[in-house]
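sry for the spam today, last one i promise. C-alpha cells for design, 290 residues
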C-alpha cells in the first residue's frame, strides 16, 4: 500500500504530461476503415508537442532568444533578487534539457506496458498455435487483442508484411525498434522456427514462463529497494521541510529574519515540490522492465 502511495505522489507530473501528449479530439470513422485508422495512428505520433519542440530547438539558441533570457534574468535580479533570477535561469536550463531528452522519454513511455503484457500475449499465441492456426493468423489474432504496445507493434509488422516485406524481416525490425530482451527472445524463436521448424507453441510458453519468473524476481528486488527508499523519501519530503521551518522560526525570534519571506515561499512553493517530483520520477525509473 505504501509503495503505491509514494509512487503515486511522484507520478502527478507524469500523469499531467501524459494527458497533454495523448489528448486527441474525437474522430468519426466508419467500421470498414481499420487500415486507415492504423495509418492515422502512425501519423498522429507527430503531436503538437513534437512540433513545438522542433520550433523551440530551432529558436532557443539564437542570439535574440539568449538576449531575451539574459534581459529577463537581469530584470528579476534587480527587482526581486538573485534567488529568483537564479531559479529562472535554472528553470530555462531544465526546459532545454527536457526538450533534448523528450524523444527518448516518449519512446520509453510508449513501451511501458510491454513488460507486463508480453507473457500473456505469448501464452495467447501458444494457445492459438496449438488449436491449429497458422503463424500469420495467430499474429493477426494477437494484434487484434488488447495487449497495448505489443499489439500495436504486431499490427505495424503485419502491415509491412502486407506490403511486401518478409515476415522474418518485419519481426526482426520490430525487435530492433523495441528495447526488450523478452521480445527479442520471442522474435528469435519465431524466426528460428520459420527457418528450421520446431514446436513453436511450447517454446513460446516456456519463454512466457521465464519472463514471468524474471519479472517476479525483479519486482521482489524492486520492493526491497523501495523499503529502503521510503526512509529517504520520508525525511526529505516530510521531515526536512518541517524541521527547517521550526529552525527558521526559532532563529528569527532571537536573531531576527535570517531568510527573507520570498526565499521561504520559493523553497516551500517550488524547491520542495520539485524534489518530491524528482524522487517520484526516480522511483519510476527503478521499476523493473523485461
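last one done:
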Amino acid at each position: 500500500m505504501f509503495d503505491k502511495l509514494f509512487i503515486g505522489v511522484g507520478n502527478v507530473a507524469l500523469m499531467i504530461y501524459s494527458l497533454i501528449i495523448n489528448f486527441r479530439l474525437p474522430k468519426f470513422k466508419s467500421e470498414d476503415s481499420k487500415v486507415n485508422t492504423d495509418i492515422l495512428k502512425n501519423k498522429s505520433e507527430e503531436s503538437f508537442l513534437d512540433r513545438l519542440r522542433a520550433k523551440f530547438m530551432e529558436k532557443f539558441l539564437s542570439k535574440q532568444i539568449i538576449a531575451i533570457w539574459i534581459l529577463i534574468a537581469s530584470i528579476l535580479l534587480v527587482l526581486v533578487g538573485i534567488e529568483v533570477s537564479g531559479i529562472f535561469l535554472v528553470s530555462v536550463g531544465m526546459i532545454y534539457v527536457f526538450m533534448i531528452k523528450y524523444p527518448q522519454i516518449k519512446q520509453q513511455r510508449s513501451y511501458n506496458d510491454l513488460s507486463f503484457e508480453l507473457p500473456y500475449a505469448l501464452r495467447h499465441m501458444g494457445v492459438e498455435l496449438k488449436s491449429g492456426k497458422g503463424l500469420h493468423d495467430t499474429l493477426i489474432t494477437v494484434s487484434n487483442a488488447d495487449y497495448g504496445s505489443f499489439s500495436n507493434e504486431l499490427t505495424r509488422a503485419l502491415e509491412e508484411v502486407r506490403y511486401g516485406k518478409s515476415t522474418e524481416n518485419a519481426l526482426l525490425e520490430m525487435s530492433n525498434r523495441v528495447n526488450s530482451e523478452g521480445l527479442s527472445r520471442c522474435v528469435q524463436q519465431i524466426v528460428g522456427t520459420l527457418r528450421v521448424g520446431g514446436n513453436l507453441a511450447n517454446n513460446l510458453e516456456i519463454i512466457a514462463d521465464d519472463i514471468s519468473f524474471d519479472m517476479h524476481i525483479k519486482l521482489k528486488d524492486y520492493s526491497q529497494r523501495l523499503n529502503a527508499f521510503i526512509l529517504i523519501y520520508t525525511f526529505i519530503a516530510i521531515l526536512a521541510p518541517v524541521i527547517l521551518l521550526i529552525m527558521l522560526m526559532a532563529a528569527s525570534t532571537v536573531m531576527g529574519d535570517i531568510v527573507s519571506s520570498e526565499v521561504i515561499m520559493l523553497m516551500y512553493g517550488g524547491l520542495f515540490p520539485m524534489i518530491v517530483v524528482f524522487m517520484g520520477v526516480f522511483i519510476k525509473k527503478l521499476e523493473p522492465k523485461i
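The two ends are 24 Å apart (CA to CA). ok im logging off now
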